[in-house]
Amino acid sequence: MSEKIAIVTGASRGIGAAIAKKLASDNMFVIVNYNGSEKKALKVCKEIEEQGGRACAIKCNVADETACKEFITGVIKQYGQIDVLVNNAGITADGLVMAMSDENFDRVYETNLKGCFHTIKNVTRQMLKQRSGKIINMASVVGITGNAGQANYAASKAGVIALTKSVAKEVGSRGICVNAVAPGFISTDMTDKLSDEVKETIGGQIPLGRFGNPEDVANLVSFLASDNSNYITGQVIAVDGGMT
Ligand code: NAI
Q1: Labelling 111: which of 42, 67, 138, 152 has CA 20 to 30 A away?
Q2: How far, in Å, CA of 19 to CA of 26, rounded?
Q3: What is the pTM of this model?
Q4: What separation in Å is there between the alpha carbon of 173 and the centre of ligand 1?
Q5: Considering the domain 4-239 in this protein, what is its CATH number?
């Protein structure tokens, strides 16, 4: 197949949906991964198709090692290649560390960090054979700076950054690029939970004076997924309106 095949995890809404649409507009066939809402994932596929693109929705919980293996091997069997993997799926379970349950620490770590590990592990074998590929992992600026009330989330995203840099060193000789994107505050369901007061305080700390849009992140992912970024690997690039 000459058309590039891209997987975007957690693509039924928010940043993931914007990335799926952007990569489809870059002429890639996009696999819209979801875990919760099939309806929303199909809606993203429909929107892509209405714009002349191609996509399909596949369910997989990235925190589940076996499910991930089946998901990725199924994609390889059906489409014969994987050119781009965007590890976007992520969750939060905020709270101060002294009151944080083990369960809330593990849930966040298993989705945000181990989810990336599971997909990367299964995709790299195929990319090594192809001698090409782009892996883009969604980190966060709080994985660099830390954030009170988000010890679990920030630690998982710091892990994503270290995973990115390590895998980039392992697979670089085969022409595979692995990078991380570190969004600041982006307007999605995830940040909608913040109170207006918190949003205002954060807004005041952003030099560009506003929260970002999912499309601001998708534009960088599009560049990192393209041949225009072939000499960039092991990097963490912030999309944060100048915050960090
Ligand atoms: P969101 O909550 O709107 O979307 C996250 C998506 O991931 C949802 O579609 C959800 O169903 C999916 N997901 C969650 N667990 C999953 C699992 N186990 N398997 C498969 N899919 C799963 O969040 P948003 O804002 O679009 O975030 C996307 C990514 O960007 C996340 O990794 C998040 O941590 C990161 N990020 C977001 C920021 C923001 O300000 N919104 C800032 C920094 C990073």
Answers
A1: 42
A2: 10
A3: 0.98
A4: 31
A5: 3.40.50.720
